[in-house]
Amino acid sequence: MTRRTFNITRRRALMGAAALPLTAATTSPAFAAAEMMGIATTRFNRVKLGSFEVTTLLAGTRTVPNPQSIFGMNATPEEFAEVSAAANLPTDKAQFFFTPTVVNTGEKLVLFDTGLNAGGISGALKAAGYEPEQIDTVVITHMHGDHIGGLNDEGIPTFVNADYVTGETEFDAWDTAANEGFEAKMRPLAEQTTMIKGGASVTSGITAVEAFGHTPGHMAYMLESDGQQMLLAVDFANHYVWSLAYPDWEVKFDRDKAQAAATRRKLLSMMAADKIPFVGYHMPFPGMGYVETRGDGFHFVASSYQQLMD
Fold this sequence. Notes:
Layout: H1 10-27, E1 44-49, E2 52-57, E3 60-65, H2 77-86, E4 93-98, E5 101-104, E6 109-112, H3 118-127, E7 137-140, H4 145-148, E8 152-153, E9 156-157, E10 163-167, H5 168-175, H6 180-185, E11 193-196, E12 201-203, E13 206-210, E14 219-225, E15 228-234, H7 257-274, E16 278-280, E17 288-294, E18 297-302
Parallel strand pairs: 6-7, 7-10, 10-11, 15-16
Antiparallel strand pairs: 1-2, 2-5, 3-4, 5-6, 8-9, 12-13, 13-14, 14-15, 16-17, 17-18
């Protein structure tokens, strides 16, 4: 029997390998295109502040039309359009974010605000590794519906082991307002709520800062741990361009628009001068950044890795 020898050269091997994908494509069934998943982002972001852990939670987000009906109400349409175009922002819609914050001091787990509803805040907490029953203290910065909505679900409390803290001036303003949301969400907790003033301590390292104007008793909160500071700015500035670059632009939801503008300038100036990072409840998620002066206004600088390092 004659023995045949096959000599496979490098060139032949490469040509054979190159042909394989084509062969497979002609003999294998076609795969369906990947499913469109929809726009999404993460639900939480956790950083270190000294010995504290600060976790921002995305409790909800939504698109709203006609942003100049909310921001820059005293600006001309032409000015609003020019400012928006320079920042690559559309003028027909805007994205709103709802960002409660959890601060773990090592002794207390403190939640600041509760989002629009119980499902949103509970889901965001669980994504971050927490359960609602772990919360020791719920701080309500002010009583707009997107901050108190998650306090209960049809009368059933969301945070069964928590005590509550809010501003005295804020509570008193809503106490006589006959507001349906306040009556359903905050009124049932009045007996469990401690009323405080600016400068009061929620717990060691967390101090109330008066930021009136958005609502009569709106509060921000200064966090301090191991020589580091961060301001939970909440709603005194609600957009990273339209509120920071133009702090005198009127905002629909500011109860006292002149006082709100004065508060913006005061706190933004302080943060810019002292290089204090802040969390804004409606800033682009994860809501954390710095402020620098720019002309007659301010500029938002998103946080990168400053608080991510040990």
